[in-house]
Amino acid sequence: MLRVEAVERALSLLEVFDRQAAHGHATRLSLSELAAGAGLYPSTVHRLTASLIRYGYLQRDADGAFRLGPSLLRMGLLYRDSFNLADFIRPALAALTRETGETSAFFIREGQDRLCLFRHHSDRLIRHHVEEGTRLPLDRGASGHVLTAYSDGHDEKSAALRAAGHAISLGERDPEAAAIAAPVFGPNGFLGALSIGGLRHRFDEAVCRQLAATVMRAAAALTTSLGGRPPPGQA
Question: Is residue 180 within 8 Å of 200, Cβ to Cβ?
């Protein structure tokens, strides 16, 4: 893929503001702070910021500090208006099913239930079967545990799940079924659970470790594509 170094350097300046905000730090930055955050020479940053200011992506205050400009909000609103969640989740599910060979799904929480919003069935003749729109209990199953842990889970089990970055369930809802799930985030926080499900006999300990890593990678990639920030365990 062709890359334009000057464009990437300019974008790296905007990323500095994002990293600052993510850590609760100031979002007004001096020229030297921008240069240090982006790993660029101050003279280079000075040239790049001039172009970003010209197009409204940065503003410079009277004291010389830089802040994000209104063009970013305008672009964000345009993105929001053209956004379709299915356009991002369906390809991610298809890719996850191809990689794992198991049915994949995306669940959201609705009250004390979990709702299958999207799914992609495995091609296997014997497979885990769940249809879009299906409601399942929140207190059983890997995706239910993820939805609880990242919405209102304050117990030790939820804390351990958040530390691990995923949940595994073996025969909780159906004695013959197993599932692995990981959280997905958008720009405004937690969205739902990305999961795979299959027959329990295919999920031994070694396979679970491997599949858990795969699901977390897929969840992190989906989070990034949705404009969210993966938790430390996934990034």
Answer: no
